[in-house]
Specification:
The protein has helices at 94-97, 156-160, 165-174, 193-208, 215-226, and strands spanning 2-3, 10-11, 16-19, 24-25, 29-32, 35-38, 42-47, 50-55, 67-75, 79-83, 90-93, 117-125, 131-134, 142-143, 147-150, 177-180, 185-189. It is an alpha+beta fold. The protein folds into 3 domains: 2-55, RNA polymerase II/Efflux pump adaptor protein, barrel-sandwich hybrid domain (OB fold (Dihydrolipoamide Acetyltransferase, E2P)); 67-143, OB fold (Dihydrolipoamide Acetyltransferase, E2P) (Beta Barrel); 147-226, K Homology domain, type 1 (Ribosomal Protein S8, Chain: A, domain 1). Helix 3 (165-174) packs antiparallel against helix 4 (193-208) and helix 4 (193-208) packs antiparallel against helix 5.
Length: 228
Amino acid sequence: MGLMIEDKQFVIPGQRLAEGMDYLPANGTYREEDNIYSAQLGIVNVVGRLVKVISLSGRYIPKTGDTVIGKITNIGFNGWMVDINYAYESALSLKEATSDFIERGADLTKYFDFGEIIVANVINVTKSKAIDLSMKGPGLRKLKGGKLIEVTSSKVPRIIGKQGSMITLIKNATNCKIIIGQNGWVWILGDDLNDEMLAAAAILKIEQEAHTSGLTDKISAFLKENSK
């Protein structure tokens, strides 16, 4: 009697999570007689007596080597916690954040503050789903200004296009700087809001019509019709 799985374990719909009445079903789970089952594909999260499943259907799953866009959510003594559009936050240590020497007790907000946006690499994914990030590498940095949008991570290759052709088309038509994270977050910075909005609309159109043929021509026509 008790838990049949471990915290942070991947589970599938219908998988038995707990037996007996010691645990209570929460989001993404249901009780049937004396057992708790998963109602969806996801990751188990056990908090006290509550058992829930965080859905991963269509969500980003980190892999070592991914380049992601993240948002600083917390600051500790040894670094920062970062939201990368995953079920769990990732960690950015002092060592992987900067080559500068940082004294103990220094104000870390001088480097990265709450809510700031960064580009980073995933350098480690543990069996317990802990994610480690690094900002050491070309193009990895803090992003200032601009607009952040979200797309389905599985559609990222279609948005980029063969050898970057699709995203280059959008950049040239809108004069925007665009960075696409493999986690489905896209950063757009243009000369004005209208340029950013047009780039965002084109990217979202690709996401919606990714399964259709002749998409490059459609996006090219869309950009011409809506340009200044």
